[in-house]
Each structure stands twice: as structure tokens, then as C-alpha cells.
Amino acid sequence: MSEVVTGEAVVVEVRVAQLPSRALAFLIDWAVQWTVIILAFVLIAQASLVTDESLSTGLLILFVVLVTVGYPVAFETITRGRSLGKLALGLRVVSDDGGPERFRQALFRGLAGFLEFWTFVGAPALITSLLNQRGKRLGDVFAGTTVIGERSPHQAPPPEMPPPLASWAATLELSGLSDDLANTARQYLSRWNQLSPHMRDEMGLRVAGQISARVAPPPPPGVPPHAYLAAVLAERRRREEMRLARARSTPPPYGPQGYGVQGYGAQRQGPQGYDVQAPPPPPPPREAGPPRGEAPTTSGGFVPPV
């Protein structure tokens, strides 16, 4: 991700296109351009049989210039920053301020691209892209543009709260849980079904151990790592949604007191005189994702460090 500042002094985050995707988009455009050049060469060669040789040479030069320079300029101007290759890869050329690409910028990119790719076989573009923080080639530097990716990466659905752990999760102290550690746990749960049983248990115990060192109280005995992590992340997301709902002055999605089965704000008396929030009704079953429900006590279950 990279930040751009608009003309209204608003900071906007954009996902800068990576070099491999840009190179693949260029290869698609390059193949299209060469196909048009070869077809034009065949037609002009046939026409040279009945026309003057100098006229045929002039037409060939004109077609080469139109294809190598006019193709990217025309496509990026009409489609507002996308050629055929960029359209296939989900890329777009935008101004450095986040606005759409203009004709002047497309013309600068096209002229610079002729020198970069057709004269020096792409060497200047490759070197400049590797040295520039945003992966810009010379044409982008001259034109004041950036190539961004429009397709967002696929994100797994957030983990759901295991019903047996809902009342325990409501008492968690989550202030020590960092965003990086929460993202690590979220990535582990998203890949849970793809891991081998040995790797699944090993990674789960390691991530759960790191989180349990920063979160209190410890889980009930016999809770497996994936259920523990799902409960922590679901409770963290619930509290964040409640905080945002209060900031917008709208009712929170789970009621003003969080999870409740006896009406909004329902609570029950817990051990040692503490008020513990009642657990929520069980969510509908889901086909994919880590198994939920009451976790049996097993020898491989997660035991948080003392």
C-alpha cells in the first residue's frame, strides 16, 4: 500500500502495482502490438506490388509509430488509464494525486515507452522500477503517474465466536494484543483447513502461546488452539464494532451490552460476585472453516503457559 495526497489535501491509500504484474501486462500489450505490426507489414507488402516503393516505406513507418506510440496513448486516454494488458491484470494508471490519467500524461508515457521498450529493450524501465519506491518507470516519472492495482486481494471471512467460549471471551483483557499478532492469528485460521495435522497443531500452539502471554484470563482447560484464537479474534472484532457504533451514535450490532439471550443488556451473576454477560444464541452452522462447538479435552489441546 502507498499513500497519495489529492488536490484537496486528502490522504488516500492505494495499492501500487507490483513489477511482475506490470511486466505481464506489458507482454500482453507487446504481443498485441506485434500482431498488428505483422499484419500491417503483410498488407503493405502486398500493396507495394502496385504502388511506389517509397510510399510503401512511408506507410510502414507510419503504422509502426501509430502502433508503438499511438496504441498506449489512445487506449489509456479512452479507458482512463488502462490498456488491454492492464485491463486483463486489473491495473490502472492514475495521477500522483490519485486522479484519472490525462491525455498529456498518456502522451508522455507513450513517448517515453517507445525509448524504454522499443529502443533500449526495456532496460531503463526495469532499472528505474527497481530503484523507485513506487515502482515507477521513466514514463511515470516524467508524466507524474503511478500504476495501481484495482483488484483487492481475497480475504477470508472473519472467525466466528465458538458458543461455549462466549461468556469467557467477554471477560478478556485485550489491550496487550497488537494488530500484527492479531493478523498472524487471522492468517493461521484462514489457512487452517489447508495445513497438515502436524503443521496445524505446531503453528496453532505457537501462535496461541504468543497471544496467551498478552491476553488474560487463560482459556478453560482442553480448549484447542484454533477455538481459542477464534474466540479472541471474534471478541476483539465485537468490541471494535461496538466502539465504532457508539462513535456513529447508532445501536451496536450485538445489542448495547454485547452478547445476550435474555433481551438487550441481559447479564447473569458469575462466580465470586462478578457480573458476567450471558452467552449468545449459537450461530447457524457453517460448512467451511475450523470446527466449532464444545471442544473435547484431548492430549493435543492448547494449555496456556502459567
List keywords for this structure.
306 residues; two-stranded antiparallel sheet; two-stranded antiparallel ribbon; elongated; mainly alpha
Provide a descriptive summary of the structure in words.
The protein has helices spanning 19-47, 53-78, 84-89, 103-119, 123-131, 138-143, 166-169, 179-190, 197-212, 225-247, and strands at residues 2-5, 11-14, 91-95, 145-149, 267-269, 275-277. With 306 residues, it is mainly α. The strands form 3 sheets. Strands 1-2 form a two-stranded antiparallel ribbon. Strands 3-4 form a two-stranded antiparallel sheet. Strands 5-6 form a two-stranded antiparallel ribbon. A hairpin with a 5-residue loop joins strand 1 (2-5) and strand 2 (11-14). The chain starts with a strand and ends in a 29-residue tail after the last strand.
Q: In terms of structural class, how would the helical and strand content be classed? A: mainly alpha
Sheet bearing the most strands, described?
A: 2 strands, antiparallel
Low-confidence stretches: 5-11, 255-279, 287-301
State Rg: 29 Å
Roughly how many Å apart are the termini? 39 Å
Oligomer designation: single chain
DSSP strand content: 5-15%
Shape: elongated
Q: Give the rounded overall mean pLDDT.
A: 79
Q: What string, H for helix and E for strand, traces the elements in order?
A: EEHHHEHHHEHHHHEE
Q: Figure out the total of helices.
A: 10
Give the % helix.
Answer: 40-55%
Order of strands in the sheet with the most strands?
1-2
Total strand segments: 6
